[in-house]
Structures are given as structure tokens and as C-alpha cells.
Amino acid sequence: MATILTIGLHPNAIDYTRHPGLDEATLTARIERGDAALRAAGFDAVSCLIGTDPDAAERTIRERLSEGTFDLAMIGGGVRMAPEHTLLFERLINVLVATAPGIRFCFNTSPETTIDAIGRWV
């Protein structure tokens, strides 16, 4: 079975003024339900929540990668889809490629679509 690193913005790193109807508690609950669904589906997934600072995020990713071998990285929509996180996204991709050669990538659009994203590559 493939080992999956799921990467997303920590709920406390998000500017909720851009997301009407969403708050930290709601997003935290959605992420927790998504993680539970991954476990229930039998996926070997390690969650990695990051902030928006590219240097700190890179350190966090490197720490996670030192814990084992990952076959697939799922990078969440909060990182990829906001223009202000372009540098962060680039840094994540580059550190993953350099540190985990051969790793594959998948992308969700919300915590609820993570299983579908992973299922495309596992």
C-alpha cells in the first residue's frame, strides 16, 4: 500500500474574511472528518498541516519526509488555489521533488474530495 503525505493549510493560517460561512472550527472539523475517512478507507496517510510562511512550511515538510518514505503527496486546494500562496506552492513542490524522488502528486479541492484525489493515483 502506498504511503500518502496529505499537506494542507492549518486552519489557524487562513484569512476567513475571504470565505464567508467558514470559520476555523468548521474547517478543523471538516479536516478531521476527512482524515477519519482516509483511515476508514484503509489509506496509510500522514497529515501535515502548514502555515503560509514558505520557509517554515519547507522545514515542516522536510521534518515529515525524514519520518519515512512517501509515495504520494496530496496538496490541498487552500495552498494551490489562492494566488497569494503561489510561492508557497512552488516551494512545496520543489522540496518534495528534491527530497522524495519519484513521489507522485494529487490535488483535492476540499477536505471532502481527498479520497477521490488519492484514488486517482493509488
Top keywords for this entry?
122 residues; alpha/beta; 4-stranded parallel β-sheet; 5 helices; 4 strands
Provide the residue-averaged pLDDT: 95
**N-to-C SSE string, H for helix and E for strand:** EHEHEHHEH
Query: Quick one: overall form?
Result: globular
What is the CA-atom radius of gyration, in angstroms? 14 Å
Return residue spans where pLDDT drops below 50 for at least 5 consecutive residues.
none
Strand content: 15-25%
Please bin the fraction of helical residues.
40-55%
**Could you describe the largest sheet, including whether it forms a barrel?**
4 strands, parallel
Arrangement of strands in the largest sheet: 2-1-3-4
What count of helical segments does DSSP give? Answer: 5
First and last CA, distance: 8 Å
DSSP strand tally: 4
Question: How do you describe this structure in short?
Answer:
With 122 residues, the chain is α/β, with parallel strands linked by helices.
Question: How would you describe the overall organization of this protein?
Answer:
This protein has five helices and four strands. The longest helix has 17 residues, at 24-40. The protein has a four-stranded parallel β-sheet with strand order 2-1-3-4, with helices on both faces. The termini are close together. With 122 residues, the protein is α/β, with parallel strands linked by helices. 28% of the residues are buried. Helix 1 links the parallel strand 1 (3-9) and strand 2 (44-50). 43% of the residues lie in helices and 18% in strands. The model has no long low-confidence stretch (mean pLDDT 95).
